[in-house]
Design brief:
binds ligand Q0Z, single chain, 26% strand, 28% helix, five-stranded antiparallel beta sheet, alpha+beta
């Protein structure tokens, strides 16, 4: 379960996802929530095997927030973004961002550069992913000839997003907008991989969210973080089996090892993480940030 929402003077809590929270700023004159801004706060919570773990990873929220801000800047020539300010209350400094409240598009925009996960499942069953026919003989972890757009539904909290064909996106938001977000999503992942692969990280796939500012498409939420994308260590890339996760591998390895006493199939909540697993995992988030940005965290 998420922690209690923070008591942030001047803000009202509006929503909590698994690992992030949303607040609305209050108008200082009227005390009424503003409708044109949101405060997006990344917590130190971590999820694994569909559970939010009891043990936070120190600084994870700040690392991911700073990484997302850096990516927005790297992508600024492709697409405008929603960030307004990082001047936020001390309690969330570094992990909170004031953003422009947009009319969010009701689809999850996913692009895949490598074949794994649900995309691999679809491919194995049909030879195609999201209606895009792929070469035969691909295996888990293979790089695709080019990044592809594989949208999904925006499921209500707790449910899983379901893949949908491009035609369903067209039906939902119209062909012109569907083509725009498809092209942007693919371009974001392609740009991300040009940068990341030169720094030893592969971005297997990513999920991005767009909103509208009038009729302009704006990149929202977080972008190209390990929570929205699969990060793989490039030096361990070996198609033919599931790839290790850049960030979560220590957590997964420990949870599925005998000392944890936990089994994925038990339906039980996973146990607290040992401190060495926490420290190693924190170090991987910091390493991803430092490798990508070239800046010390
Ligand atoms: C993002 C989410 C959560 C963080 C709504 N710029 C925007 N305008 C309108 N809505 C959103 C955004 Cl980013 C928006 N989410 C997802 C949930 C914490 C982000 F709890 N939901």
């Amino acid at each position: 379960m998420p922690d209690e929402p923070l008591d942030l003077p001047g803000f009202v809590h509006v929503y909590s996802g698994k690992v992030r929270d949303l607040y609305a700023p209050l108008d200082p004159g009227t005390g009424v929530p503003r409708e044109d801004r949101l405060l997006l706060v990344a917590s130190d919570r971590i999820s694994a095997y569909d559970f939010v773990l009891d043990t936070p990873i120190p600084d994870k929220g700040e690392v991911l927030t700073r990484l997302s801000l850096w990516w927005f800047d790297q992508l600024a020539d492709l697409v405008p973004h929603h960030v307004v300010s990082t001047d936020v209350p001390d309690a969330v400094r570094g992990r909170g961002v004031l953003v422009e409240r947009l009319d969010m598009l009701p689809v999850e925009c996913v692009a895949r550069a490598y074949l794994t996960g649900g995309g691999l499942g679809e491919y194995t069953a049909t030879g195609a992913v999201s209606g895009i026919r792929l070469p035969s003989g691909l295996v888990d972890g293979d790089r695709l000839p080019e990044p592809i757009f594989t949208p999904s539904t925006k499921a209500p909290a707790g449910a899983h997003d379901e893949p949908i064909p491009f035609a369903a996106v067209e039906a939902e938001i119209g062909t012109a907008l569907a083509e725009r977000v498809r092209d942007l999503t693919v371009a974001i992942l392609a740009r991300g991989n040009e940068i990341a692969s030169a720094r030893g990280i592969l971005l297997a796939d990513t999920k991005v969210e767009f909103g509208l500012r009038g009729d302009e498409v704006v990149l929202a939420d977080e972008v190209l973080t390990p929570d929205s994308s699969r990060f793989w260590p490039a030096d361990q890339w070996e198609p033919g089996h599931p790839q290790p996760s850049f960030d979560k591998q220590y957590v997964r390895d420990w949870l599925t090892s005998p000392p944890s006493g936990w089994s994925r199939s038990s339906g039980q909540a996973p146990p607290a993480l040992p401190e060495d697993v926490v420290a190693q995992t924190r170090a991987k988030y910091v390493e991803a940030y430092e490798r990508l940005t070239g800046e010390a965290f």
